[in-house]
Amino acid sequence: MNEQAIPAQGHPLLEARGVHKAYRRGAHRVEVLRGVDLAVVPGEFVAVVGQSGSGKSTLLHLLGTLDVPDQGQILFRGRRVDNVSARTRDRLRNASIGMVFQFYHLLPELTLLENVLCPWMIRYGPWAYWRRRRELESHARELLARLGLGHRLYHRPKELSGGEMQRGAIARALITQPELLLADEPTGNLDSRTGGEILRLLASLHREQGLTIVMVTHDPQVAAAADRVVQLQDGRVLAADQPAAMRAAG
């Protein structure tokens, strides 16, 4: 295992062990990941950087169990999760892993409040959700208010700015209080000022709540917000930085 991609201390919350992934493009087989090892301990903020085509988003999708590797293993809290059923992976994501994407993926026909409540609706089903709706809606309102969206509850995505949509997507990812947040180019579709606001929000969630974050970005300035930087090149871990505290001490 590549020791550069492993933090110096602590038991991993999330691991990739010897992960390979390839896709078909017509008659050609394209190797995207070529034996990636990565471990993330609870409370870390890790940035995965690399050029387009380096395998960053593919790795994040595997870490989030949206896809499965061709070879290797994905583990969450020491338990292998890439070889379980799709339903079990869905339940793991709903309970423990929040995901944020570059293009928000808010449902256009729903209000912002309804979008944020979707993970609860999926978890409980219509009847159980209906019985708990007041409690769950109150929690969603409080979360949106903390993210500066208390005045946008009943707006649909087309009525929101890019920064508001991304904060709404972060609220949806956090509504079930996950242990891990995975963010795929969360500032990539935003201007520099709004992107900075989103980065500061992620940094405050990490600092104040101890949220574990793995963020994919192509931008070194965005990656600088993280504790540790892992660089991918041609589907392999090229280098990994030390945690920020260790860099400062050195």
Account of the protein in words:
- With 250 residues, this protein is α/β, with parallel strands linked by helices.
- The protein has a single domain, classed as P-loop containing nucleotide triphosphate hydrolases (Rossmann fold), CATH 3.40.50.300.
- It contains seven helices and ten strands.
- It has helices at 56-63, 86-96, 112-146, 162-174, 192-209, 220-223, 244-249, and strands at 14-25, 28-40, 45-49, 71-76, 79-80, 97-100, 180-184, 212-217, 228-233, 236-240.
- The strands form two sheets. It has a six-stranded mixed β-sheet, sandwiched between helices. The chain has a four-stranded antiparallel β-sheet with strand order 2-1-4-5, covered by helices on one side.
- Helix 5 links the parallel strand 7 and strand 8.
- The longest helix has 35 residues, at 112-146.
- The protein is globular, with a radius of gyration of 18 Å.
- The two termini are 25 Å apart.
Secondary-structure map:
Layout: E1 14-25, E2 28-40, E3 45-49, H1 56-63, E4 71-76, E5 79-80, H2 86-96, E6 97-100, H3 112-146, H4 162-174, E7 180-184, H5 192-209, E8 212-217, H6 220-223, E9 228-233, E10 236-240, H7 244-249
Pick out its properties.
alpha/beta; Rossmann fold; 6-stranded mixed beta sheet
Question: What's this, in brief?
Answer:
The protein is α/β, with parallel strands linked by helices and 250 residues long. Helix content is 38%, strand content 26%.
